[in-house]
Amino acid sequence: MPDREEKQVGIVISHLFKIFGANANNHLNALAKGMTKAELNERHGLVLGLNDVSINMAAGQVHVIMGLSGSGKSTLIRHINRLVEPTAGQIIVGGQDVLKLDEHALRAFRRNTTAMVFQKFALLPHRNVLENTLYGLEIQGGDRYRHREKAMRWISRVGLNGFENRYPNQLSGGMQQRVGLARALASDSPILLMDEAFSALDPLIRSDMQEMLRNIQQEVKKTIVFITHDLDEALRLGDQIAILRNGEVVQQGSSQDIVLRPADDYVASFVKDVNRGRIIRVDAIMTPSNPASALPKSLLSADTTLNAAAKLMCQHGGHESVVVDGHGKPLGRVTKDQIMAAMIGYGGLWGSENGGGTSSFRPVLYSANQPANPGNRAER
Amino acid sequence: MDWLTNFPHLNDEALRLVKKGLDDAFRTFTRTYGDSIEGLFAPLQYLLIKCEHFLTDTPWPLIISLAAGLAWLASRNLTTVAGTVVTLVAIGFLNMWDDTMKTVSMILVSTIIAIVLGAPVGIAMSRSERIQRVINPVLDVMQTMPSFVYLIPVVMLLGIGKVPGVIAVVIYAIPPMIRLTNLGIRLVDKDVLEAADAFGSSNWQKLRDVQIPLALPTIMAGVNQTIMMALAMVVIASMIGVQGLGQPVLKAINNQYFTLGLFNGLAIVGIAIIFDRISQAYGKRLQRHLELMHA
């Protein structure tokens, strides 16, 4: 936005612990010695929220934190603006130690550095769209006229032109969350915290919103922390993804890392049903090769997804393509076989998948088992 | 076995001494500080007199138009306006105009005082469990203690007249204002409050922009209840010299004038309904944004 110089702020979270309950500090040592979440709850009645979480979030990127309910993801995002106080650990935002801020400085930090979008929208029901969008700006204080102008610009950017005077109750869920997004963006904070922002929306609206967020992010280049329980959403939005389980980070990495090299069975079980062709990029599976040996074949840019690559190769024929970077420099080559294997998750490179490839050979077993079932049913 | 059937009690002499001691102490207190305490309430007296003069001295057609205008502003409903006008005209026609205006004046002043005192107390209660624990039993006492009991010390301190009347009415009518303000603020959606925190609201901004506006429908219900309870006190207040519709009712009780009692009683009911409809309609209009549904 023109009124404030682009300011990018990264977030460094190190060794963050959160234990809910009285005298939480006394149990940090026990945790370090390997006490589990279940033991802590059973013996002391305390709930372990976060267990030694360290994440480095680079400025200007979308960082997705993914986990199922109870994994601590909402607790984690609330530590960044200190809506929840940690039991131990450190949070550095743009070089500033968030945990050392006094009440006054913390308010200023929340006003100017972070903005938040909520799962349940959390709009003010007695204010219309424009007044809701103005909310963060009003709290910052300053020139009302410029605030209004800025709010109107964001309202139209999120596609709510003409709805300025409607009340939240008059809007659908998707439109309400657009207001939530406009409110957060209008405050011009370099960090955007999105707590399951699209989880309450139905699938079509959700993917619209994801698309809009991606477009807006290309313009504003904020540091976005996005919480979700939906792996597809995580893969679609995240530059970096951290997977949380029982308050611990199980894996951190790019979408390619998560899909191709799941750190353990837990992550693998998530990744199993992902549409791999839409996520994996050709540069992640290509055979790096000596550019000189590359024959003039069809070219694929490195960020092409497998689906798109397969389609192109079918259209243009040929068995092999050369993968090139943004400047047309060859990086390696990729074959149709490689693409097909990667799509179904078969092969040694991405290892942990084992059942998928053989399942199609089940008919023998299937027919052998088949007679048993009708028999069982007949007995009843 | 006498102690089983007759409750063992303090002996009569000791009990008499306790009562006498307390009475004497309070009487001394009244004699010493009575005047200065009366001085303290002089502004209230002034306000009451001004308000009453305004209502009784203004020509009745003006007052009726004013009431009709208020009814329209609050409800935007012609039936409410018509009901207000008809009731007031009937009251005037049956020669109860002056008494009614005196009563309305006292209700208005009592309600304003109850709001001004009650809202901050309710807000304080909503912010602190400890304050809530202290105030709740006090409110219970105020609501259940027979009004005559606290009329005694008030009359001893301030004599009879408007001011002690208003004090008695406020004591009786303020609890719903306090309770419903407290409740309304406590019921404000936690998600919205979290959003206010996340955007860096100060406590005052949170109260002004989020808590009070969202609690307002509940607070308005408290105002409505306060008005109704104030009206219920009119007859009792007339026993300590408050003029208005209560005095004819009192006279009717003493002399068994059935019709006099009925007319004045109905006049109280009439203005109660006017107050109720207007304040409820206003409370509803405050929630208009909740009723507009997404089509």
Automatic annotation (TrEMBL), chain A:
<dbReference type="InterPro" id="IPR017871">
    <property type="entry name" value="ABC_transporter-like_CS"/>
</dbReference>
<keyword id="KW-0472">Membrane</keyword>
<dbReference type="GO" id="GO:0031460">
    <property type="term" value="P:glycine betaine transport"/>
</dbReference>
<keyword id="KW-0547">Nucleotide-binding</keyword>
<comment type="subunit">
    <text>The complex is probably composed of two ATP-binding proteins, two transmembrane proteins and a solute-binding protein.</text>
</comment>
<dbReference type="GO" id="GO:0006970">
    <property type="term" value="P:response to osmotic stress"/>
</dbReference>
<dbReference type="GO" id="GO:0015418">
    <property type="term" value="F:ABC-type quaternary ammonium compound transporting activity"/>
</dbReference>
<dbReference type="GO" id="GO:0006865">
    <property type="term" value="P:amino acid transport"/>
</dbReference>
<keyword id="KW-0067">ATP-binding</keyword>
<feature type="domain" description="ABC transporter">
    <location>
        <begin position="35"/>
        <end position="271"/>
    </location>
</feature>
<feature type="region of interest" description="Disordered">
    <location>
        <begin position="361"/>
        <end position="380"/>
    </location>
</feature>
<dbReference type="GO" id="GO:0005886">
    <property type="term" value="C:plasma membrane"/>
</dbReference>
<dbReference type="Pfam" id="PF00005">
    <property type="entry name" value="ABC_tran"/>
</dbReference>
<dbReference type="InterPro" id="IPR046342">
    <property type="entry name" value="CBS_dom_sf"/>
</dbReference>
<dbReference type="GO" id="GO:0016887">
    <property type="term" value="F:ATP hydrolysis activity"/>
</dbReference>
<dbReference type="InterPro" id="IPR003439">
    <property type="entry name" value="ABC_transporter-like_ATP-bd"/>
</dbReference>
<feature type="domain" description="CBS">
    <location>
        <begin position="286"/>
        <end position="353"/>
    </location>
</feature>
<keyword id="KW-0029">Amino-acid transport</keyword>
<comment type="subunit">
    <text>The complex is probably composed of two ATP-binding proteins (TmoW), two transmembrane proteins (TmoV) and a solute-binding protein (TmoX).</text>
</comment>
<protein>
    <recommendedName>
        <fullName>Quaternary amine transport ATP-binding protein</fullName>
        <ecNumber>7.6.2.9</ecNumber>
    </recommendedName>
</protein>
<comment type="similarity">
    <text>Belongs to the ABC transporter superfamily.</text>
</comment>
<dbReference type="InterPro" id="IPR000644">
    <property type="entry name" value="CBS_dom"/>
</dbReference>
From TrEMBL, chain B:
<comment type="similarity">
    <text>Belongs to the binding-protein-dependent transport system permease family.</text>
</comment>
<dbReference type="GO" id="GO:0015871">
    <property type="term" value="P:choline transport"/>
</dbReference>
<feature type="transmembrane region" description="Helical">
    <location>
        <begin position="257"/>
        <end position="275"/>
    </location>
</feature>
<keyword id="KW-0472">Membrane</keyword>
<dbReference type="InterPro" id="IPR000515">
    <property type="entry name" value="MetI-like"/>
</dbReference>
<dbReference type="Pfam" id="PF00528">
    <property type="entry name" value="BPD_transp_1"/>
</dbReference>
<keyword id="KW-1003">Cell membrane</keyword>
<dbReference type="InterPro" id="IPR035906">
    <property type="entry name" value="MetI-like_sf"/>
</dbReference>
<feature type="domain" description="ABC transmembrane type-1">
    <location>
        <begin position="100"/>
        <end position="279"/>
    </location>
</feature>
<keyword id="KW-0812">Transmembrane</keyword>
<dbReference type="GO" id="GO:0015226">
    <property type="term" value="F:carnitine transmembrane transporter activity"/>
</dbReference>
<feature type="transmembrane region" description="Helical">
    <location>
        <begin position="104"/>
        <end position="128"/>
    </location>
</feature>
<feature type="transmembrane region" description="Helical">
    <location>
        <begin position="148"/>
        <end position="174"/>
    </location>
</feature>
<keyword id="KW-0813">Transport</keyword>
<dbReference type="GO" id="GO:0043190">
    <property type="term" value="C:ATP-binding cassette (ABC) transporter complex"/>
</dbReference>
<protein>
    <submittedName>
        <fullName>Binding-protein-dependent transport systems inner membrane component</fullName>
    </submittedName>
</protein>
<dbReference type="GO" id="GO:0005275">
    <property type="term" value="F:amine transmembrane transporter activity"/>
</dbReference>
<keyword id="KW-1133">Transmembrane helix</keyword>
<dbReference type="GO" id="GO:0031460">
    <property type="term" value="P:glycine betaine transport"/>
</dbReference>
<feature type="transmembrane region" description="Helical">
    <location>
        <begin position="80"/>
        <end position="97"/>
    </location>
</feature>
